[in-house]
Amino acid sequence: MQDFLAGNVALQNTLATMEVERRKVAAEQKRGIIYIGIGIGVCIVGLLLGLLFWAVLAGLIPVIYGIIVLVKIREATKAYERAYKQNVIGEALKFIDPNLTINPLDGISSDEFSYAQLFNKQIDRYKTEDLVSGKIDKTSFYFAEVHAEYKTERETKDGTKTSWIDIFRGIVFVADFNKHLSGVTIVKPKDLVNTVGSWFSKNIFSFSDQHVIQLENPAFDRTFVTYGTHQIESRYVLTPAMMERILYLNANALQSISLSFIESKMYIAFPLDRNYFEAPIFESLLNPVSLNTDINTIRFLCDIVKELDLNTRIWGKE
């Protein structure tokens, strides 16, 4: 893992300044949590001794105080988290490429996420943040964190129980493709397709088994299932070189990726198991492990343009 702090004096100075604020926020949060813990402990001990009224009364005082402390520090915590994304992540992005920008409050709309046709479920709850935008040579791209969920309800003896299930949690990458496409090409990992047999039933375009495309790359066909509304065009999109690059990209991702090629865009979904670009509260900013993980993730995403050779305009799109 590359250490982006090494030799980056501006970023080191920014982290040193923000470390002072982080310690203040962490200290207040710890204080609030400790008082709440003390109050709960007093209640438990009092209840074990049979002192119900006095246990609740004695425990309630530190719990209320702890909650007040956490409420008071909430705005300072949010300000610290915003500053981390703008100043630390923003500065680190410039270290990778001066054209990169981050907008922590923006993301990829739920309409665009659905239009990409990477997942099948109707979205009931959707969150997106940390939009990173850039341009490498001729290719514009952007990506953001996305958390999409659907809701299930079932009746129990205690009433209706609602559960929220992930459709997708991770990063969606969108790049300008090198041709205006008239059809749709979708590449799904086989393990995911096997678990959602009716995946295509609710999409914008009507897919069926007759739209499955067998390609001349056995390793690619073992890893992915490819669907397309225009077989010839899909084969032009998924050239032998492109398939090899997608296999390489998939092998270096944390989990299997999904792709779609629609109109003049390429969409890639990278499932992730953690929330990236978040400011640490109880870990020192001077420890580069967390930051290096985030920045290496950004570097990996930016390298997609090069890895997939998106700047080669083989069909004349400029």
TrEMBL record:
Superkingdom per UniProt: Bacteria
Membrane-crossing segments per the record: 32-49
Keywords: Membrane, Transmembrane, Transmembrane helix
Descriptive protein name: DUF3137 domain-containing protein
